[in-house]
Design goal:
Helix content: 40-55%
CATH class of the largest domain: Alpha Beta
CATH architecture of the largest domain: 3-Layer(aba) Sandwich
Number of strands: 13
Largest sheet: 6 strands, mixed
Distance between the termini: 36 Å
Number of helices: 17
Strand content: 5-15%
Structural class: alpha/beta
Number of domains: 2
Order of helices and strands: HEHEHEHHEEEEHHEHHEHEHEEHHHHEHH
Radius of gyration: 23 Å
Oligomer: single chain
Length: 422
């Protein structure tokens, strides 16, 4: 049995107690769920996906996921129950961890990682380089109904490593009240960077603590604007980088774009929800937050403005991967294939309000959830938030420099080029 690592510094009886209590809680949660009605039928390939069916036997897969909302947890729990019902020779032993990154890293440090777990696409290169995860076997692949740029983001050096669970793109959230307050027309479809900047300036009223745009200085947002300024999906280098930085830094310098802390908020979504900014750039995760924390706020969501070269969005992809140390990779990949199937990704989209990892399914889901249409529309031009080895560490270092980028644009432009390295 793989253990639940809580803190690498905990040892002895306390650690054993935490380990077993965590697994017991999940077991009780799974057991307490009434067996759900059958989900849409989906044929899950059985290892080796193109060969004979193995002899049934008592086989177990350990799974680690992060604890999320009750609705999201319920989808995963019900999916496991359905999987076990349709695969009686396989059993799943799982854990939903609220402190997921720490639990996962400690499991690897202890030499007992889960067989199946979740990664963001930008983590794949580091995990593959460390030989922590297995490539997908021949015959198993992500949905073919993905834009090529997104499909490429699930690979490392052309080798596919994961099966996507969800995709999130970006859009602009708009507060119509703050536009009306200054008699500013709402943005229209097909708007541009110039329209975006004009709206931010026109809706700013610093004397009353109101600003046109809340935008954290973060490379995951800068990436979107860089993509829109070039036709190259490797957006970190080129003649477009400096003009893009100049466009954004001017918004801050002019006092129309602010960091959330400027309006006593912890992130873009809170600043927008408190009615302190007319616009922000965020993903679909903001809508459930606003409904829960600011139910009276009236707002709209618009597609991102088009840049000098094109319309594009950064896409954040979460996917299932199998540990290189999994003792039964066949069983782990069989479970991964089921969890990445429409039988699970569609109810997951309903619970998490993220997009199914399939253009056709996403379009169907968007038609049933029209408030999310701008995020679905962004799929065709989306480029994944990912990079080579050390991408996460490089982003962290550069994010520290980003607030002062305007002081030395040449050096910061040169520093960004390292993100294009493998």
């Amino acid at each position: 049995m793989w253990k639940r690592p809580v803190n690498h510094c905990l040892t002895g009886p306390l650690r054993r107690l935490l380990r077993w209590s965590g697994l017991l809680l999940l077991a009780l949660a799974l057991g307490a769920c009434a067996r759900p009605p059958a989900l849409p039928e989906f044929t899950v390939p059985t290892w080796p996906f193109a060969g004979p069916t193995p002899t049934p036997g008592p086989r177990t897969v350990s799974l680690l996921g992060w604890s999320a909302s009750p609705a999201e947890n319920r989808v995963l729990q019900e999916a496991i129950l359905n999987f076990e019902a349709t695969h009686p020779h396989l059993r799943v032993r799982g854990l939903l961890a609220p402190d997921y990154p720490d639990v996962l890293e400690t499991a690897f440090l202890d030499g007992e990682p889960p067989d199946l777990f979740l990664l963001a696409a930008h983590q794949l290169a580091d995990y593959a380089a460390a030989e922590r995860i297995r490539p997908l076997p021949a015959g198993l692949a992500a949905s073919p109904d993905l834009p090529p740029a997104l499909a490429a983001g699930l690979t490392v050096n052309g080798v596919p490593y994961c099966l996507p669970r969800e995709i999130a793109t970006l859009a602009v959230y708009i507060n119509p009240r703050l536009f009306a307050r200054k008699d500013v027309a709402l943005p229209q479809p097909g708007w541009t960077w110039e329209d975006f900047a004009t709206a931010a300036r026109a809706t700013t009223d610093a004397n009353f603590g109101l600003f046109g745009l809340a935008l954290t200085r973060d490379l995951s947002r800068l990436h979107t604007f860089l993509l829109q300024a070039t036709t190259d999906d490797t957006a970190w280098t080129g003649d477009h980088v400096r003009p893009t930085l100049e466009f954004l830094t001017a918004l801050y310098a002019d006092g129309v774009a602010v960091e959330p802390g400027r309006v006593d908020s912890t992130w873009n979504g809170e600043a927008f929800g408190r009615g302190k900014v007319a616009m922000t750039v965020e993903g679909p995760w903001l809508r459930p937050f606003l409904e829960r924390e600011f139910p009276l706020l009236r707002y709209e969501v618009m597609e991102l403005p088009a840049g000098p070269a094109r319309r594009a969005s950064t896409a954040f992809v979460t996917c299932w991967v199998v540990s290189a140390a999994a003792p039964d990779p066949e069983a782990a990949f069989t479970l991964a294939a089921y969890l990445a199937s429409p039988a699970v990704t569609l109810p997951w989209a309903d619970a998490a309000k993220s997009l199914p990892p399939n253009r056709t399914l996403a379009a169907q889901w968007g038609a049933a959830n029209p408030d999310y249409a701008p995020f679905v529309a962004a799929l065709d031009t989306a480029v994944p938030w990912t990079g080579g080895t050390e991408f996460t560490n490089r982003v962290t270092r550069l994010n520290r420099l980003l607030p002062d980028a305007a002081d030395d644009l040449d050096n910061f432009t040169a520093a960004l080029a390292q993100l294009a390295e493998d």
